[in-house]
């Protein structure tokens, strides 16, 4: 397991240990995510402190492995393009070193790669006149004027969001998204050349216990909760009506175990199939943490953000037997009380 001390990875470790698997974790405790070693470290797993880009560390951790869960990655949209070298180095180079060592060891077991819905860009849309059409990248001028929803590139009419299937072509709109596409491509090449089964799990908006607090390298749920705990209203970008599929981390861990056991190649959305607006999620946290507070709809935007991404869950249900079990209300109840990870120290340029 790579990244087994992180948010998603640690829950997968817990699930594997609980069912009796022998688990070796390779994690370097990325300084942008960890202030110290997490208190939730599972005593039933073996931990190796090491960098995924270090071939010797990877080789040692892989010894005797019959399956690999690759969860290590820099996540989030980041701060600015200054983050690009870090994302590429951690996500792409780290994955390349892992795959090279797997090939050298003649690994033939299951490889599960934690990917993301960001590979889809702006998801899938339908035009009343022209059917399914791709949403072109949003322009800064339109966003600045408050025109957040994409329009048909052929007739200019508003587009309706639809559930995106795994067959949609990749269309990354941020540095992080580009690295996730590259991770998938590298893993697919590895599978084709070695014959190993490679499962790519495209997580939608994961939330739950152990998300890192007070960092831009986290999911929006943790960012909103951190704001509420500071006594400020969560800032919601654009008009708040952008749709996401919020899936609880316990369901994501369950999907990983199913993928490891299925030992089959392919890409799968890990989602609930029940989209929620970002503003509604922020309001749900306000209701639970500061009754009477309301989200601050700022109208601000980021070019790297996308408008709507809804995931089709049909393939994961049919081929992996995966179906999310945590409803939105119950998940928000849990998340409002859940322990979050201690904040990481600020970047050098932020501390200056």
Features:
four-stranded parallel beta sheet, single chain, alpha/beta, 352 residues, 11 helices, disordered C terminus, four-stranded mixed beta sheet, 35% helix
Structural summary, described in words:
There is one protein chain. With 352 residues, this protein is of the alpha/beta class. It contains eleven helices and 16 strands. It has helices at 7-18, 55-62, 84-104, 140-144, 175-194, 220-229, 249-262, 278-289, 314-320, 328-337, 348-351, and strands at 24-27, 46-49, 67-70, 110-116, 124-127, 131-133, 160-164, 197-203, 205-207, 235-236, 243-244, 246-248, 266-270, 276-277, 296-297, 310-311. A four-stranded parallel sheet has the order 3-4-8-13, with helices on both faces. Helix 3 (84-104) links the parallel strand 3 (67-70) and strand 4 (110-116). Helix 3 packs parallel to helix 5 (175-194). The longest helix has 21 residues, at 84-104. The radius of gyration is 20 Å and the shape is globular. The two termini are 36 Å apart. The model is unreliable at 347-352 (pLDDT under 50).
């Amino acid at each position: 397991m790579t990244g087994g001390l992180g948010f998603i990875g640690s829950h997968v470790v817990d699930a594997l240990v609980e069912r009796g698997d022998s688990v070796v974790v390779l994690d370097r405790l990325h300084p942008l995510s960890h202030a110290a070693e997490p208190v939730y470290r599972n005593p039933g797993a073996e931990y190796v402190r090491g960098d995924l880009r270090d071939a010797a560390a990877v080789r040692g951790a892989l010894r005797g492995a019959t399956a690999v869960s690759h969860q290590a990655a820099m996540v989030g949209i980041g701060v600015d393009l200054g983050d690009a070298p870090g994302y590429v180095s951690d996500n792409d180079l780290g994955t390349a070193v892992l795959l090279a060592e797997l090939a050298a060891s003649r690994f033939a077991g299951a490889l599960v790669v934690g990917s993301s819905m960001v590979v889809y860009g702006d998801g899938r849309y339908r035009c009343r006149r022209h059917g399914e059409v791709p949403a072109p990248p949003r322009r800064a001028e339109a966003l600045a004027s408050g025109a957040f929803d994409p329009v048909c590139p052929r007739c200019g009419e508003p587009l309706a969001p639809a559930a995106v299937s795994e067959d949609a072509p990749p269309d990354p709109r941020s540095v992080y998204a580009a690295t996730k596409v590259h991770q998938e491509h590298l893993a697919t090449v590895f599978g084709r050349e070695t014959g190993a089964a490679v499962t790519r799990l495209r997580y939608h908006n994961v939330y739950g216990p152990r998300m890192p607090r007070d960092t831009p390298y986290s999911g929006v749920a943790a960012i909103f909760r951190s704001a509420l705990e500071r006594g400020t209203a969560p800032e919601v970008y654009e008009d708040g009506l952008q749709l996401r599929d919020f899936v609880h981390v316990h369901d994501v861990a369950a999907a990983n175990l199913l993928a490891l056991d299925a030992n089959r190649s392919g890409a799968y959305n890990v989602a609930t199939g029940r989209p929620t607006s970002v503003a509604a999620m922020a309001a749900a946290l306000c209701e639970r943490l500061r009754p009477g507070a309301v989200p601050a709809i700022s109208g601000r935007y980021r070019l790297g953000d996308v408008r709507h991404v809804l995931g089709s869950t049909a393939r994961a249900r049919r081929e992996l037997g995966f179906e999310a079990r945590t409803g939105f209300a119950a998940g928000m109840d849990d998340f409002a009380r859940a322990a979050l990870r201690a904040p990481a120290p600020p970047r050098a340029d932020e501390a200056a």
